[in-house]
Please model this.
Amino acid sequence: MFHYLAQHYDTFYVFNYITMRAGGAILTALLIAFLIGPALIRYLQKLKQPQRNDGPAKYNKEEYECKEGTPTMGGALTLIALTVSTVLWGNFESIFLWTVLGTTLGFGLVGFIDDYAKIRCKNTKGLSKRARLGAELAIALAAILITAWVTPDFYETRLIFPFFKEWQFDISYLYILFALIVIIGSANAVNITDGLDGLATMPAISASVVLMIIAYVTGRIDYTEYLYLPYIPQASELTVFGGALLGSCLGFLWFNAPPAKVWMGDLGSLALGAAFGTMAVMTKHEIVWAIAGGVFLMTISSTILQVVYYRLTGGKRLFRMAPIHHHFELKNWKETTVVIRFWIISVVLALIALSSLKLR
Model:
C-alpha cells in the first residue's frame, strides 16, 4: 500500500526504506503483544497445563508453589505478533523473508504439538524425541536448500570466520550438515535455556538486535565492501523480520519478566531458536551468531557435557545440575540473580559479536 502511495505522494516514499519498515515492524509487534497478551494468558490458564518439575524449584516448596499455575505455550504471543508484523511490513517478493518465516512457524508447530501432547496426556514428556528430531530435520533441510538456491554461488557453501579478512573456507557438501547443526542446535539451545522466568527472553532480544544489524549490513554492497563481509543481496529484507522478532520478544518479556505470568514453552522457544539459526545461515554469520547467542550455546553445552561426563565417569556429575543455570541455583544463587547475570552476559556477548563486523 505504501509502495503504491509513494508513486503519487512523495511523503510516503520514506516507507520504501528498509530501516523505516524495520522500525515499523518493531513497534507493530510490540503493540500486538501488549494488546493480545492479557487475553491470551487468561485463555492459557484455563488449559490447566502440567506443572514443570525439572529444576531446583521442586526441592523448594515455597518456590514451587509460587510457580504452580503459571501457563506455558506463551510463545503463541510471540509468534502471532511476529507473523502479523512481518506480513504487514515485509516485502512479499523476498524468498529469504518467507523462508525464515516459514521455518520459524514450522518449528513453532513442532513445539505446539509437543506442548499440546503434554496437556492432553497430563505429563511433561510430550512428543517423542525421534518424531521431534525428524520434523526438525525436514524443516531445517528445506530452509537450507532454498537458501542455497538463492545465495550467490561464491558464498553458497562457504564458512566465514569473524575478526579475519581472509578466513573463508569452502566446505562443500559438509556445509549442509553444518547448517543443520546451526538451525536445529539453535532451536534446542533456546528451548533448554527457557528454564527460569525471563532467562531466555533477554538473550533473545540482544540476539535479535545483532542479527537485524548483520542482515542490514550484509544486504548492502557498499557496507560489505568496506567491512570485508559477504554480500548477500536478499539478506537486507531480513532486517524487517529481525525488527518484528525484536518487537515480539520485547512484548513477551513484559509478561515473562520475573515473576513470570506466562512461560514460552516449546512452541515459542523452538521457533525463536530456529529463526536465529536460519538468519545466521542466510547471512553467512553462523560463527558470529555463536558469539551473540553465547548464553544459549553455554546452556546446551553444559547439558551435553553433563551427560558425557556422567557416562564416562560411571555416575559422577560435572555440574550440580544441568542446564548450568540450575547449577547456580543449587549454589544458593536466587533465581532473579541468575537471570539478571545471564542477561548481562548476553549483552556483553552481543557487543563482542557486533565488534566483529569492524575488527578484521
In short: The chain has one domain: 2-355. The chain has a mean pLDDT of 88. The first strand starts at residue 158 and ends at 160. Residues 199 and 340 are 8 Å apart (CA to CA).
